[in-house]
Amino acid sequence: MQMKSTRVTRGVQVDEVWAAADAVLSQGERPTIERVRAYLGRGSPNTVAPMLDAWYGSLAKRLDANGGEEGTGEQGALPAPVLRVAKALWGRAQQHAQEQAAQSVQVDRDALEKLVERLAAERTALDQEQQRLNERSEALGAALLAKDHQIADLMRQVTDLQKGLAGRDADIESVRTQHAAATQALQAERGRLNALNEEHRQERERLEQRASAQERRLLEDVDRTRQELKRVTLLLADDNKKAAKSLADSHEQAQSLRVQVSALIAENAGLAREILSAREDLQMAHSHQEQLQKDMADLLVQLKARLPKGGANTETPATRSKMKTVLKR
Fold it and tell me: Half-sphere exposure of residue 131, counting CA atoms within 13 Å on the CB side?
């Protein structure tokens, strides 16, 4: 590069910065902004910085321009001492850069392996949680089916009991009908007895000789009728008591069955809510799993983009196996 002449009043120029950088480099030190400014004795960092960057940008070309020959007189070529120092510093810089790149690749590889292990662990945990939710859903479904069968059995029992109650009501109505008929027959018998008494009175007036025998017969008939009436009355009372007790027991059993049916229906509704909650948890777990897979794929793409060329070939077989396993899942 051809240097331009400068004036002191114009401030630091490019050729001054480059000459100062060459001088610092010839002393075996790395040219920095502060060292160049110290060598020049002036210049602001904002002015020196871009000029020094340009010097570093041309350093490789200037080294190549020497072609391995020291002390050439080409314009823009470095002096022999500066060239030797520059080559040494350039070699150290390249070695340092390679070491830094290798360390960065190793750090990224370690981070990637840890991320793959963490994602695999999370995937395993999600699979276990999904299996637990599936088992819980199956158990709740089985319990709900059993409750449905139990409710159906109880409903059949209630139906049978209602039919039995209807039959009992018919029996009670029949007993009541018989009691009414017996009462009507008793009243008719009482009317007949009254008529017979009146006839006996008349007949006693007319037939005094036959009155005693007929009166005894009539009294015996009346006594038998009264005994029969008393027996029928007791039977009817006992039948009424039995029917009333049976009806009360049937109503009490029906009420108990209704309470059991109500409890089972409420329990069935609770089980249905639990199944719905389990299904929602399962759906959320699936969404979380899909989001983790998407995040892992994005992170793998970013890490691969950050790796230097050829870095993918340096992956260990274990890392590639873990990455393939996670991506397949």
Answer: 6
Query: Rounded to the nearest 5°, which phi and psi values hold at 316?
Result: -75, 155
- Alpha-carbon distance of 153 to 37, in angstroms, equals 100
pLDDT the model gives residue 89: 73
| Residue 41 DSSP label | T
Half-sphere exposure of 257 (CA within 13 A, CB side): 19
Helical H segments across the chain, by residue range: 14-26, 33-40, 45-66, 80-206, 208-306, 317-328
> At residue 152, what is the residue type?
A
Domains of the chain: 8-78 (no CATH), 105-321 (1.10.287)
Distance of CA 66 to the CA centre of its chain: 71
pLDDT at 302: 82
Residues of the chain with pLDDT under 50: 1-9, 68-75, 311-312, 327
